[in-house]
Design a protein that fits this description.
This protein is an all-alpha fold and 245 residues long. It contains 10 helices and no strands.
Length: 245
């Protein structure tokens, strides 16, 4: 199983590198994003860039959106390129194929986030020197957990969407709608909760702090991710209608 997983992960990463790392296929875009997030934004925010609450929760959100571009291609892309039949004809188990695609997408999210975070930290240290505030190890590991759980959640949802669509464009459009709804629902719930519940929620947030909220978000995202990926594994089986459509 481990060997099969590694085979799928390697295949996916070769495709990712071919798509994003060549200058003719988006390489310049990757460099511009790295410059903007790793150099420009830290210089604008200043010495406290690494410890601001906004940036702490921004990275998991951004990583999740980047992961969505990869996972939308997981099944719909194979179907659109007429390679899904070839992939299913191999000896690779269904679980290895699907989980390998999940792992590749999550690793891509980690690589994207950690590259930009690392460049940003170097930028802040070079520009502000001893005045730069450094992220604690506890918050750094919590950030890693948030990035992983949010990426897994998006991967699970993206797989279900990709299973039901014929093209990558359709998958990205449908996923965009789900992502927007999922983002707006908490804000809408808070808006209609009423003054008393809003006040109680504000008190709870103040009591939890950044680390507490991060732990809650990580736990909830991980649980939802496990559920969605489990459903995707159940649907992704040779001979099922989800793969024949």
């Amino acid at each position: 199983m481990i060997t099969d997983l590694w085979t799928v992960v390697r295949k996916e990463w070769l495709e990712i590198l071919d798509q994003f790392m060549r200058f003719k296929r988006g390489g310049w875009t990757v460099l511009l994003v790295i410059f903007f997030l790793g150099v420009f934004v830290p210089l604008q925010i200043g010495a406290e860039w690494a410890t601001t609450t906004v940036m702490f929760f921004y990275w998991p959100f951004l990583t999740a959106s980047m992961t969505s571009t990869i996972v939308s291609d997981a099944v719909a892309g194979e179907r659109e390129r007429h390679t899904l039949e070839t992939l299913l004809a191999t000896r690779l188990p269904d679980r290895a194929i699907l989980l390998g695609k999940v792992i590749a997408a999550v690793l891509y999210g980690y690589a994207f986030a950690l590259t930009n975070v690392g460049i940003g930290m170097v930028t802040v240290l070079v520009r502000f020197g001893d005045d730069a505030t450094r992220m604690t190890w506890s918050r750094f590991f919590l950030l890693l957990g948030l990035i992983g759980s949010s990426s897994l959640l998006v991967a699970g949802l993206g797989l279900l969407v990709s299973l039901r669509t014929a093209t990558v464009r359709q998958a990205q459009q449908m996923f965009g709608v789900f992502f927007l709804v999922a983002t707006m629902l908490p804000l809408l719930a808070i808006a209609i909760a009423g003054a008393e519940r809003q006040a109680a929620f504000s008190i709870w947030i103040a009591q939890q702090g950044v680390e507490g909220i991060g732990l809650w978000a990580c736990a909830i995202a991980s649980a939802l991710a496990a559920l969605l990926i489990g459903v995707a594994l159940w649907r992704f089986q040779r001979g099922t209608r989800a793969l024949e459509d």
